[in-house]
């Protein structure tokens, strides 16, 4: 599985496109905004988008999903049902933050330990509440890659001061779902540079006691 990160939205959110190098089947992850930019990246590589995958309901991650889904006739999968209150408020978030967005209900809510696939790639879904209650991450164990959204960042962790954020839940999610992975797993973060589990385990100041 290959992952290309394209920063979108005023929040410089990484909108990954993950694809199977063998089949060129792909998924759009967190298309928060600037969907034309994302569609261009996809068509330059001749990718075959299968669906849109959402890690959590914040506007910088989910704001462009409806428009992209409509444009390409794709289904939206995820996040977990506990983020419904955020998806129901995307239009309000948009008015607050000066972005255009539409509320949506995904074709499928995802649960802990569900699996999703595209091409020859299989990803395990892990529920990681804390930044938002219904935040999910997707782990490709064969490729040792994690699509991590706003849970764990290079040198930091997701904010917990937004509605229904919870610091202890976030630390618990990282401990039980991410620090249990091997050091050589790459993490594609929702903001900022990529990292690895090993680098965060050794240096992340928020995880020193974990
Ligand atoms: Zn977020
Ligand atoms: Zn974000």
How would you sum up this structure, described in words?
There is one protein chain. With 210 residues, the chain is an alpha+beta fold. It has one domain: Metallo-beta-lactamase, Chain A (4-Layer Sandwich), CATH 3.60.15. 25% of the residues lie in helices and 28% in strands. The chain contains seven helices and 13 strands. The strands form three sheets. The chain has a six-stranded mixed beta sheet with strand order 6-7-8-9-12-13. A five-stranded mixed beta sheet has the order 1-2-3-4-5, with helices on one face. The mean pLDDT is 97. It binds zinc ion (2 copies).
Unreliable residue runs: none
Order of helices and strands, N to C? EEEHEHHEHHEEEEEEHEEH
CATH class: Alpha Beta
State Rg. Answer: 16 Å
Biggest sheet: strands, sense, closure?
6 strands, mixed
Helix fraction by DSSP (H/I, runs of at least 4): 25-40%
Structural class: alpha+beta
CATH topology: Metallo-beta-lactamase, Chain A
Strand adjacency order, main sheet: 6-7-8-9-12-13
Head-to-tail CA distance between termini: 29 Å
Number of domains: 1
* Beta strands, count: 13
What is the beta-strand fraction?
A: 25-35%
Task: Please name the CATH architecture.
Answer: 4-Layer Sandwich
Report the total helices. Answer: 7
Instruction: Give the integer mean of the pLDDT values.
Output: 97
Which descriptors apply to this entry?
single chain, 210 residues, alpha+beta, Metallo-beta-lactamase, Chain A, six-stranded mixed beta sheet, five-stranded mixed beta sheet, 13 strands, globular, binds zinc ion
């Amino acid at each position: 599985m290959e992952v290309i990160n394209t920063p979108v939205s005023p929040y410089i959110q990484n909108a990954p496109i993950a694809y199977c190098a063998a089949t060129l089947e792909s998924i759009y992850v967190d298309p928060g905004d600037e969907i034309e930019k994302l569609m261009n990246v996809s068509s330059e590589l001749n990718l075959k988008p299968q669906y849109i995958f959402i890690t959590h309901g914040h506007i910088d991650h989910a704001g462009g999903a409806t428009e992209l889904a409509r444009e390409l006739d794709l289904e939206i999968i995820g996040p977990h049902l506990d983020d419904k209150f955020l998806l129901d408020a995307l239009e309000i978030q948009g008015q607050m933050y000066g972005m255009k967005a539409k509320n949506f209900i995904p074709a499928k809510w995802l649960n802990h330990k569900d699996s999703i696939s595209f091409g020859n790639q299989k990803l395990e879904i892990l529920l990681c509440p804390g930044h938002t209650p219904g935040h999910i991450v997707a782990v490709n164990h064969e490729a040792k890659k994690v699509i991590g959204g706003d849970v764990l960042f290079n040198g930091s962790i997701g904010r917990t001061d937004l509605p229904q954020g919870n610091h202890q839940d976030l630390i618990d999610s990282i401990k039980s779902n991410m620090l249990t992975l091997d050091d050589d797993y790459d993490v594609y973060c929702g903001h900022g540079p990529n990292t690895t589990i090993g680098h965060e385990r050794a240096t992340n100041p928020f995880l020193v006691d974990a």
